[in-house]
Amino acid sequence: MTADSVAQPLRRRISSAGLWSMGQFGASLSVRLLSNMILTRMLLPEAFGMVAVVSVLTIALALLSDLGIGQNVIVHNRGNEPAFLNTAWTVQVLRGLFIWSLAIMAAGLITLLAARGVFSPGTVYVDPRLPAVLIVGSFIVVLQGLESTKVHQARRNLQIRRLTEIEFGVQILALAMTVLLAWYWQSIWALVLGSVFSSTIKTIATHLLLSGQPNRLGWEQQAWWEIFRFGRWIFFSSIVGVLFTTGDRLILGGLVDVNTMGLYAIAALLLSVVQSAVTTLVGTVAFPALSELARGDRQGFRQAYLRFQAAADGILGLAAGGIYICGPLVVSVLYDPRYAESGAMLSILAVGLIGMRYCIVEQCYMACDEMRYFLASNVLRLLVMVVLLPLGHAYYGLEGALTAIVLAQFAAWPVAWLFKAKHRLFDWRTEGAFIPAVALGLLLGNLLLMLVNAF
C-alpha cells in the first residue's frame, strides 16, 4: 500500500469533516444570533451579565478537574477499545458529579462572603439570585459527564455528519424552549433552564443516535493509568489556565457593575462567533487529522500543519481587521440602543483574534503528546491576565482592562515558537501570512462602512 493510497482517504475525510463542521457552524450561528436577538429584547442586560458569571464559574470548576478525556480517546491507540472507553466514560461521569458538588460549595461560599461585605456593592457577586442560579445552571456539567463516548469516537474518525445533525437539532429545540420560558417568565431563569434542557436533550441523543461502542460503568486499571498519564499535563495546565480562560469575566465581575458586565458579555458573545468557527474546525478537523499523522507520517504531519496554519491565519486575520472597523455597526444592527456600548468593546477585543493564530500549534502539542508546552502557554497567559487586567482598569478604566484581555492572547507566542523550532515546523514564507489578511479585513470593513453611510 503506497503512502498516497493511505493519505487520500484521510484527505477525503478531512474535506468532508470540514464541510460538515462549517455547515454546522453556519446553521448554529444563525440559531444563536436569532436566539440572542430575540432574548435581548425580552430580557434586561443584567440577565446576560449574571449568566456570563455563572457560566464562567462553571467552566472554571470544570477546568480544575480536566483530564482531556475526549482528546485522549482521539489520540490514543486504544481509542476504539470497549474497556478503554468504559473506563473513560466512568471517569467522565464521576468528574461531572464532582464538579457539581464544587459548584454547590462555591454558591455557599459566595453567599457567606457577600453577607460579610467582601464584594463591592452593586457587583454581580452581591446579587442574592447568584447562588441559586449557580447551583441550577452548573447541573449541566453532570449531564455533559453522562454524554456517550461515541462523540469522541466520531471525532477521532472524522465522522462529523451525525454530530452536526444532533447539534443543530438540539439548538432548535433549546431556542424554542428558552424563548417560551422568557415570554412566560421574563426572568434570568429562562436562560438557566433553557441551558439545562439543551444539555439534557443532547446527552440522550449521543446515546441513542450515534453509532459506536455503547457505554456502561466499568474500570480497567491500565486504561485509567493511560488516561491519567496523558491527562496529567492537561490537568495541571487547566489549573494554571483557569483564570486566563475565565479571568476576563471573573475579574471584571468584581470591578464593574452588572449592567456593564452584561454589555461586555454581549461583545464577548459576538466575538466568540469567529472564535467558535476556528475552534470548531481545529477541534473537529485539524486535531484528529494531525493526531492520525503524528502516529506514523511525520512529513505528512508537517505539511498538514502548514496547510491548517495558513487557513487559520487567513480566517483570523480577515476577521480581526473587519470586526475592528465594523464592531459598532454589527451591534447597532443586531441589538437595540441599550447595547450600543458593546460595539466599542467588540472593536477592541477583535485584535485578540490575531493572538489566537497559534491555536493550530496547540493542537500539535496534544497530537505529539507534549502537553508541557500547553502548560507553559497557560502560565504566560495567566500572568498577563492577572497582572495587567486590574492594573489596566485602575489606570485606564474599562478600555485598559479590555486591552489587557487582548494582550493575554499574545502571551503564549514564544512557547509556540520553541515548539515549532524543535519539530521543524517553521516556514518563514508563511509566518507573516496573517498581515495581508488583517489589511484586507481593514479595507473591507472600511468599504462596508462607506456603503452603509452612503445609503
Question: What does this molecule look like?
Answer:
It contains 18 helices and no strands. By secondary structure, it is mainly alpha-helical. It has one domain (7-454). The N and C termini lie far apart (61 Å). Mean pLDDT is 81; it is low at 1-8.
Task: Describe the protein's topology.
Blueprint: H1 3-40, H2 45-63, H3 69-75, H4 82-115, H5 130-137, H6 140-145, H7 150-156, H8 161-185, H9 189-208, H10 221-253, H11 258-294, H12 298-334, H13 341-350, H14 352-355, H15 359-367, H16 372-410, H17 413-422, H18 434-454
Short description:
It is a multi-pass membrane protein. The chain has 455 residues and is mainly α. It has helices at residues 3-40, 45-63, 69-75, 82-115, 130-137, 140-145, 150-156, 161-185, 189-208, 221-253, 258-294, 298-334, 341-350, 352-355, 359-367, 372-410, 413-422, 434-454.
Descriptive terms for the model:
455 residues, mainly alpha, disordered N terminus
